[in-house]
Amino acid sequence: MRIVIAEDSVLLRAGLVRLLADAGEDVIAAVGDAAQLIEAVERHAPDLAIVDVRMPPTFADEGVRAAIEVRRRWPGVGILLLSQYVEERYATDLLTGDNGKLGYLLKDRVADVGDFVEAVRRVGDGDTVLDPEVVAQLLARSRRRDPLDRLTAREREVLQLMAEGRTNSAIAHHLVVSDGAVEKHVRGIFAKLDLAPTDHDHRRVLAVLQWLGAP
């Protein structure tokens, strides 16, 4: 099977290439951003694209939006999304349709190499492979009224500290984590509250306003 990998982490990208090559699969391109993914699919016509949901430059939803574009332009290419969390806003769009060849796995729950390779092959063969947590969150989506319900416990904790006026460094000190970990949680908060980057709005303030307005 001919595979394109789109993953911004150099180490993870190299690991996936080696893992799949050892399993006998043909990785024809491995790229680090969404634009390169589109170019690679157009140039190589792969059977499957393995795509990280969050990619440069904003690390919000570039990967999944590129996957949707691939799905629209080349419906015969299978899509296997890898993510740290369930991107509900776009997962439903990807699941729409009856041509299969779709997978959505959470990185933290992929613990067995054999299971991962099997999922890759099943998607390439035309099946749909979804992490049980993805299924659970999508089923619960229709019952949610408050966007804050999308946040993890840690993200809610970070947002509460943001509402107290603390900087990322102060939040990191309070939670005893790195500044990078806080930045990652903040990006997750913005994505889950549908706060896309703009030239006019301050996403940090808008997120805090949603928190303060919650019942």
Automatic annotation (TrEMBL):
Keywords: DNA-binding, Phosphoprotein, Transcription, Transcription regulation. The keyword Ribosomal protein does not apply. InterPro entries: CheY-like_superfamily, NreC/VraR/RcsB-like_REC, Sig_transdc_resp-reg_C-effctor, Sig_transdc_resp-reg_receiver, Tscrpt_reg_LuxR_C, WalR-like. Residues 2-122 form the Response regulatory domain. Pfam families: GerE (PF00196), Response_reg (PF00072). GO terms for biological process: phosphorelay signal transduction system; regulation of DNA-templated transcription. Residues 144-214 form the HTH luxR-type domain. The keyword Lipid biosynthesis does not apply. The modification 4-aspartylphosphate is found at residue 52. SMART domains: HTH_LUXR, REC. One of its GO terms (molecular function) is DNA binding. This is DNA-binding response regulator, NarL/FixJ family, contains REC and HTH domains. It comes from Parafrankia irregularis.
